[in-house]
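Hi C.,

You asked whether I'd gotten around to modeling the 215-residue construct. I have! Everything is below, sequence then structure, no commentary in between.
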Amino acid sequence: MKKEYIIPIFVPHLGCPNECTFCNQKKISGQTKMVTAKDVKDTIEYFINHFKDEEKYIEVAFFGGSFTGIEVEKQEELLQAAYEYIEKGIVNSIRISTRPDYIDKTILKRLKRYKVKTIELGVQSTNNYILKKSKRGHTYEDVKKASKLIRRHGFVLGHQMMIGMLDSTKLDEIRTAKELIKLKPKMVRIYPVLVIKGTELEEQMEKGEYTPLTV
């Protein structure tokens, strides 16, 4: 059985139209500068030189921000840098993370050209009230539409959901999980909300408007 490896490329806050109350991608990733094709290639080279297993499956993953919201020229620059390693037989596939409202047929055709295999959607919640409170800027209807398009075009669909969002209860989160199951993702990542310094959520916590999850 092949050992699976992911090479992470962080593109902090590129492509995001707004800033969610809980988010500060620059602090989370530690990056503040624009990622370039050279950065992508340097990161891939570093990781492949440290992988030990002979039999391995390697995926380059663009994390952070909303990848398909980046200007098309920059998307293609980064994708092309990773795709070159697929053509050489060194890397097997590419994965991206993006927003549900940044998916359409044109975008998916572009991703297909560069052999993107997996698309993870930042869903967070299926409750429109909770999404609005956290200033996500998309709705559950956007999630359903994007999920269907992704699956129909032959990509591996992933969902990201959050627990502990402002005004979200355990019942809301169980309902989100059940609703996401209906959309048939191949994987779901569950993220607990962490209060990041310099975010609106930190201010809400200090005012007593938000109580974070306990460990």
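If it helps when you're writing up: The chain has one domain: 3-206.

Thanks,
B.
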